[in-house]
């Protein structure tokens, strides 16, 4: 299983206290995403210029000629990078999976069994009040490994939760659903304004499919001005929730620090933060739309 981060004690990613494993890979490309380093199937090379001393050791170590020092500045040609890690190993200010390094390959790979054993001590501590959540990226891009991991969790009576966009083929959901207690439904296809009727039917069918096993499904709603604030968008979300008998929704504010990982990843950010972040009263107005329909709203 490929993952880029673990949250060891989250209270906003499923019921109770949870270990959250953020799995690598996502095809959605949401413009407001605050984890662009999760998009690629394999680990991206992150570069923090403030930690670089321009010593040139990475230039000498890299056979792919990714790095160059010109007029006292460090430049990267990421198209050449094969993620070998030689530059990270050579850099005096870097550790391979430490996000505070000058250079970093954040993604780690473990078998489902090894990853389960790695997080089990913490799960043993919190399993009476919480459990495990698999997020991303899009967790079900690794559906076979996820199913194996969750099966191990259920053998230990650990509560399980997955966050998903419900945009992938139904076969991936069928593979894991016997082992999932809770789902956090991100519904990215709606948030991105993709073709209404057909996409909504597909989402509804897949949510109703997993509901046969799930204890609860909670909708997740990114509150992003200009994207998810229109009347049409709110109606689509509400209609899907009603069709799937979802009674709770979590509002997710835009991460004001989202630019950090775009800079480290060398990915242009299309969003203007000053234009997409909503004031609390604006979020409360959207919340009222759902609350008048009997939906429980939580802002996280």
Please tell me about this protein's structure.
The protein has a nine-stranded mixed sheet with strand order 7-1-2-8-9-10-11-12-13, covered by helices on one side. It has a two-stranded antiparallel sheet with strand order 3-6. The longest helix has 15 residues, at 112-126. It has helices at 57-61, 86-90, 112-126, 143-155, 170-176, 188-191, 196-210, 231-243, 259-265, 273-276, 280-291, and strands at residues 2-10, 17-23, 46-47, 67-70, 73-76, 103-104, 108-109, 130-135, 159-164, 182-185, 216-223, 248-253, 296-299. The model has no long low-confidence stretch (mean pLDDT 93). The chain contains eleven helices and 13 strands. Helix 4 runs parallel beside helix 5 (170-176) and helix 7 (196-210) runs parallel beside helix 8 (231-243). The protein folds into two domains: 2-25 and 110-299, Alpha-Beta Barrel (TIM Barrel), CATH 3.20.20; 46-104, Alpha-Beta Plaits. It is α/β, with parallel strands linked by helices and 300 residues long.
